[in-house]
């Protein structure tokens, strides 16, 4: 086989076949061609908003899209965080001052040790938050005034090498003079919605926790919480039950050590929404992870005004806050984070 580089003169030093001085351009071209071939066999991931540090990359998806590996090589040791949409808050159409349950936080889980194959595109589906319960003022309707479940978030599909999913949060329970609504339990993997002023909170799934349960107390029309709503479950802890002191708080969200504090709510996702209080009771606060408060009163005897529940923050999976004679807060949409070391 002939020598691959061009010789342009003689040299007293025979560094290679036949000796000679080599054209620098030919040497450079050969080196760069080798580097190009090397890079073709490495992974090259794109999609979402990319955060790069000296030690890792994160692809953040706040809406549906695709993660694409345009390189021929696979990328191993990938962690994929999925956050489902939060459940909407419930409301209460009863003639007295009572309250609905907070929406459950979306399911949250980090799927570790995933491999992204070369020359492959993966579908990313970010779940929307559930709508809050519609307002009917003093005119109750059937079905009762519960919030709606949040949507699931999925990475991949049945026709792709990976398909992983977490469920959305359950809607908060509602109430009317015709009956009490059990909280909507999102039976796959999200957190359950909180109970209204009577009943049991929704059951949490694999990647969530239960909504809070009702506990009677206080005096109708007086100090204390007579018929308050409970908080929605969070990905990190269960929702708080209504008690004489006030409506239930939403459960806290969940985080992982590698998640930066500028994502989610200080790195937390999937907090439950707060329950709505009755006159004289406290409104529940949203769990950390941006489940939001119902915006209730300041303390026993302080009074609770009618008003819409506060919606969970976008891309946190937070549950919506509950309401009374107004619209429940909507759940926050979910998110997807793809993390890997570099």
Key words describing this protein structure:
342 residues, disordered N terminus, single chain, 1 helix, 5-stranded antiparallel β-sheet, 12 strands
Can you put this structure into words, describing what you see?
This protein is mostly beta strands and 342 residues long. It has one domain. The protein has 1 helix and 12 strands. The strands form 3 sheets. Strands 1-4-7-8-9 form a 5-stranded antiparallel beta sheet, with no helix packed on it. It has a 5-stranded antiparallel beta sheet with strand order 2-3-12-5-6, with no helix packed on it. Strands 10-11 form a two-stranded antiparallel sheet. The relative contact order is 0.19.
What number is the mean pLDDT? 81
Based on secondary structure, the structural category is mainly beta
Radius of gyration: 28 Å
Give the oligomeric state of the chains in this entry, treating copies of one chain as homo and distinct chains as hetero: single chain
Order of helices and strands: HEEEEEEEEEEEE
Helix/strand layout:
Elements: H1 24-40, E1 45-46, E2 49-52, E3 56-61, E4 65-69, E5 75-83, E6 108-116, E7 120-125, E8 153-156, E9 163-166, E10 175-176, E11 179-180, E12 335-341
């Amino acid at each position: 086989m002939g020598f691959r580089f061009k010789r342009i003169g003689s040299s007293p030093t025979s560094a290679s076949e036949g000796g000679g001085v080599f054209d620098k351009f030919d040497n450079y071209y050969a080196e760069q061609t080798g580097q190009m071939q090397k890079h073709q066999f490495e992974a090259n991931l794109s999609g979402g908003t990319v955060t790069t540090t000296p030690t890792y990359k994160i692809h953040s998806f706040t809406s549906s899209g695709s993660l694409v590996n345009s390189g021929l090589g696979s990328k191993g040791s990938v962690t994929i965080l999925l956050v489902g949409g939060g459940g909407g808050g419930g409301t209460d159409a009863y003639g007295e001052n009572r309250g609905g349950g907070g929406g459950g936080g979306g399911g949250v889980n980090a799927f570790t040790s995933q491999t992204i194959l070369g020359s492959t595109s993966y579908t990313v589906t970010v779940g929307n938050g559930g709508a809050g319960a519609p307002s009917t003022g003093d005119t109750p309707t059937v079905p009762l005034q519960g919030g709606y479940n949040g949507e699931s978030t999925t990475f991949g599909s049945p026709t792709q090498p990976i398909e992983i999913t977490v469920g959305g949060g359950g809607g908060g329970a509602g109430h009317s003079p015709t009956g009490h609504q059990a909280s909507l339990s999102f039976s796959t993997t999200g957190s359950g919605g909180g109970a209204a002023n009577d009943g049991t909170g929704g059951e949490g799934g694999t990647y969530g926790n239960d909504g809070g349960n009702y506990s009677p107390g206080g005096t109708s029309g007086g100090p204390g919480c007579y018929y308050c709503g409970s908080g929605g479950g969070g990905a990190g802890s269960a929702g708080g039950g209504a008690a004489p002191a006030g409506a239930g708080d939403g459960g806290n969200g969940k985080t992982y050590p590698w998640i930066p504090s500028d994502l989610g709510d200080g790195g937390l996702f999937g907090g439950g929404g707060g329950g709505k209080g009755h006159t004289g009771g406290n409104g529940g606060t949203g769990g950390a992870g941006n489940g939001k408060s119902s915006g209730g009163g300041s303390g026993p005897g302080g009074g609770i005004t009618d008003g819409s529940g506060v919606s969970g923050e976008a891309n946190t999976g937070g549950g919506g806050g509950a309401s009374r004679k107004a619209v429940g807060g909507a759940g926050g949409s979910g998110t997807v984070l793809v993390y890997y070391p570099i």
